[in-house]
Write a structure and sequence with these properties.
homodimer, globular, 181 residues, 36% strand
């Protein structure tokens, strides 16, 4: 849960990070930038800023902004009816991202899940993304990611985004941020 | 037709434009950046640089670099068999782009087609794209675009790219650049 003024402040911070990555946003894009706290009300730990550039029936592109050590919690994009689950590519533009996917667990991973929610992080195959590095996820693959010391800006290229169908490992998560006032 | 050393030089120029737009490319990405002259051997007039980040069965993302007043010639992305034609979104990152699509012809358009090939430019509905501005094209829509005075860098988000199926209005065009040596 966030207040409207907290959301405005976070939108401006996210826009600054995205601008620092060399990406120009229009003022109306900053105002519709989503500040997602996943219903956990600990935004700096679990959350991210999301600007959707385009999301048609067939494809989608977004810019993601993450605060230092902030985590996007573990989830997957399932197939729904005849619609194959979302496929996504993350390309790091600025900062450092630790992405975790299904596969052999990495010994001594860099990221730590948000305190108290460790049980909801189950995949530990680490992929390090720095500017210019990218990774493509198959549909329905469990994944989560955390920004490094400076935060991160990530471009996401994907098939259609249908956030309402995302399945989070943490059952307390609500994908859509509630506004307090 | 271009020589290998011309291609290397153009790749470096394209990478500089893309870097100036704030986008970091890895050295191996610069080496595989496509320098497309559309078989017309007048690259600074008709051509562009293309870096494909990802192109799966379902979606595609690219960075396009254009030299001052350079033109990407008129073409469309048809439906092939049961595969619906490519849908694409152009987002201007740097510079100015004049995009022309089907629709009411713009009086006094900004761009001029490359000299001698004017007859192969038939759609004249102008869309001006400056940094942070974008436009989504439906499949099979004829379109062409030209960079402004400084050149341009454009992000393209789309469904799968199958360049071999593109239909150009100019029948002399060959989509794939031939290398001289």
């Amino acid at each position: 849960m966030l207040t409207s003024s907290e959301i405005t402040q976070r939108q401006e911070q996210a826009a600054r990070m995205i601008n620092n990555a060399g990406i120009y946003l229009k003022p109306e894009e900053v105002r519709r930038l989503e500040i997602a706290d996943f219903g956990l009300s600990e935004f700096e730990k679990t959350g991210l800023g999301v600007l959707v550039y385009v999301n048609t029936e067939r494809c989608c592109a977004k810019e993601l902004a993450m605060w230092p050590h902030q985590t996007c919690p573990e989830h997957r994009h399932p197939t729904v009816g005849t619609k194959l689950g979302k496929e996504e590519t993350f390309r790091c533009r600025w900062g450092t991202v630790y992405l975790y996917v299904e596969g052999p667990a990495t010994q001594s991973p860099h990221a730590m899940p948000p305190a108290g929610r460790e049980h909801t992080y189950t995949v530990w195959h680490e992929i390090l993304l720095q500017p210019g590095e990218q990774y493509t996820l198959s549909p329905n693959t469990k994944h989560w990611f955390q920004a490094g010391d400076e935060g991160a800006v990530i471009s996401e290229f994907s098939t259609r985004s249908t956030d309402e169908h995302d399945i989070f490992t943490d059952e307390e998560i609500q994908r859509f941020t509630q506004i307090k006032d």
